[in-house]
Protein 1
Amino acid sequence: MVVLCGPGGVGKGTVADRLVKEVEGLELSRSWTTRARRPNESNLAYSFVSKEEFLRAIDEGKFLEWAEFNGNLYGTPLPDHQGSTDLLLEIDSQGAHSIKKLFPDSLVVLLLSPSEDSLRERMRQRGDDEAHIDARVRLAKKEIASAREVADYEVINLDLDRAVAEIASMIYKARESKSRGGDIGRG
Ligand code: 5GP
């Protein structure tokens, strides 16, 4: 289990897409959410469901973990395979805490932006208005502090190719260490 977490607007989605293309045996888990689809967002980005449907799935034990984030519900469905692939979860810090508890040998990577200004700029590019951005930056700071409690590694998304390569090598290293029966290191 590989967990990619970090504040909204840091580029987790882009990094996750690249990782599943470049790292063999890595599959992206598709989360469920009650959030409305954003304009221009792919309808495959999430399983977009109603709150009723989500609450029913909780009752039926369909999630590995779920959390409320910014007023919406998000959940990782139980994986439908027992196979040889690793699962990549792009989730918030509450989810990272849950997964680390369930799977202590999972690899948790915290993706960070090079600076607060660059985070604000990315949020603006996504179409957030200025008042909205201030609130999201405050939320981002909380997210980072909480994710730091469980992250094995922190990666700064200054250069996309480099961030992807760094995380890929962390995954290979964790696999190698696991196959030798060892723990993954914190760093
Ligand atoms: P967004 O609405 O911007 O797509 O996502 C908001 C936050 O929810 C992001 O930090 C994203 O990583 C997180 N998230 C997405 N899917 C899940 C999930 O299944 N579980 C949890 N705990 N968080 C998720």
Note: The pocket of guanosine-5'-monophosphate is lined by residues 8, 12, 31, 35, 65, 67, 69, 74-76, 90-92, 94-95 (CB under 6 Å).
Protein 2
Amino acid sequence: MTNLLIIGPPGAGKGTQAVRIAERLSIPAISTGDIFRANIKEQTPLGQQVSAILDRGELVPDSLTNDLVADRLQQEDAKNGYLLDGYPRTAGQVEFLDGVNAERGEKLHAVVRLVADKNEVVARLLKRAAEQGRSDDNEETIRNRMDVYDRETAPLVEIFASRELIVEVDGIGEVDEVTQRILEALSGRGIQ
Ligand code: B4P
């Protein structure tokens, strides 16, 4: 059983690394951002509700996000653990996840904190904007996503640090190099 989170500012490489780390550990990488984008693409009722929110770079309300994660964690592939990417993002989501874990009779094992400076992450996101045209990768929305991260999500690092769960990893460098750093840091905590 391995329950992990990956946390960091937009563009730090969470989504990129989550898939690789999860594959290595044989657990699912669960990205709330990907789930929202899939719903927007398929024009589901949830997608219609959240589309404008993502375009502004605001957070989807906890009332929608929490239940979605709880449902996802009940699926068969998550019975041996999970790597949550982009969740929790608010103190309310942390509290909710604590409740879900308590119900499962489980706990978190580590929180990977990916560190990358602002200039680097903005450059990455603008590059992705040019390549993939994601609707929230324009300069104004990126700036707002950074502000929202600083205000709502960065403080969560303190919560997890007080539980001695933070594994800090430098997110600057080649993708493979960063993956290696994360795997080594997790292995140092007996997670492999
Ligand atoms: P996310 O999908 O989580 O978007 P993100 O924070 O920008 O991270 P992402 O995973 O896309 O980028 P990454 O750092 O991997 O969220 C999008 C929106 O969904 C939020 O703004 C919000 O509205 C909503 N949402 C999601 N979860 C929510 C929640 N829990 N509560 C409320 N709302 C929620 O990578 C960025 C780029 O860098 C990529 O192009 C990648 O190729 C590149 N890159 C990665 N590693 C690199 C490296 N080492 N070197 C160079 N480039 C690299």
Note: The radius of gyration is 16 Å.
